[in-house]
Amino acid sequence: MPTVNLLMIHVWNEKEISYRGRFSNLLSYPSLTLATLYSLIPKGVFSRIDIVDENSQKVNYDKEQYDMVMLSFETSSAYTAYKHCAEFKKRGAYIVCGGYHATALPEEVGGHCDTVIVGPAEISIPQFIEDFIHGTPQKVYKNFDVCAAQFVIPARDKVTGHKKLRIPSVIADRGCRNSCKYCSMRTMWKSDPRPIESVIEEIRSLKTKMVIFYDPNFFGKREYAMELMQALKPLKILWASNATADFGYDHELMQTAYESGCRGVLIGLESLNSQSLTNAAKRFHEPDKYKEIIENIHSHGIAVNGCFVLGFDNDTEEELLALPERVDRLGLDLCRFAVLTPYPGTRQYEEYERGGRILTKDWSRYTQHNAVFCPANMTPKRLDEIYRQVWKEAYTWKKVLKRMAASPWRKPSYLFILLGANIGFKFLGIDKYHGFDKGMRK
After folding, report:
1. Is residue 230 a contact partner of residue 256, using CB atoms and an 8 Å limit?
2. Phi-psi region of 270 (alpha: psi -120 to 50; beta: other; left: phi over 0)
3. What is the DSSP letter of 73?
């Protein structure tokens, strides 16, 4: 086979500022996407493989001549990806696209590339490359039936750590059994935990004292989580993960988590309005119990990052404007906010599309920092304004210091990490986004 050069890109929305500023190294993690894709490439096929993570690197169309370009991207990055596709096509490259947006809208994405990878890549990428070698590449590859035993160890050494946290990430189960209406997770992955020995072997190879589990819900399959945590204990590492609110009522689970090294969980609390949680198909929908849950988790020495979504149909201006003070009383260690974003492929998108409530399909605005639909109780512009005000008020220095003082973390090194994360969110940069009336495109 003649010389073939490959470029792999994890595309980032060129208009997006958040997580790319001076404090991005306090919040951003190295891409597992590129590292995993690299590990799926059969050896000996390509003469050269270059990798670009656009979160901290730039794409140069003319630095090298590439025969193939693979792009993975989310919805907000689609237009930037299409720009890359057009430029590399001009230069004669074969274009392959995959990721969440390609999985949700394969026909749209297929109009910009030669091959679309729908869903997981473990089977599709090797199949595609074999077909490409034989001159018979297909337009679409779709293989959702990937077994956890087929997961490869990501080639982390091939991906830049520039402007990223120096904490490696690991996935034990990349799927989620929940079915929240606004979440795109189920369009991409199924819940299928990896063999525990494989997870432990991977962590050992990292030679690290701390890891972040990317699992959407680390504790979703309780028996598996308990076995994995028992296996983690001898490693004597610290770790953090995602969890759901009901984690805060399982004291055996919380204590085992702490003993195995868990020091922080991120929980999608989403709303302080019970009806909003019910309508979004959240399994736990009792926000009056959030404070108790957080106190329970704290009692086991574990910090909590609570995430909230603004723009549900039951949200009123008054309720959202009160959010910073109400969140402050919960005793969280960190808090994050997002504008409700109906991503293609989700039930939320389908519902809003049927109801004529989608205001724009300018995908570059689907960043969770802009209203792209018509809210029930306020204008889109007002939702944008309130969202930015909530971030600002939740991250006054007074509230940051209060969170530090209330944290179960007492070691100076832990508090330093918590302070760094609070500073990172304080200067996230969402206030620099173009306003609702600017750049709207149907």
Report:
1. yes
2. left
3. -
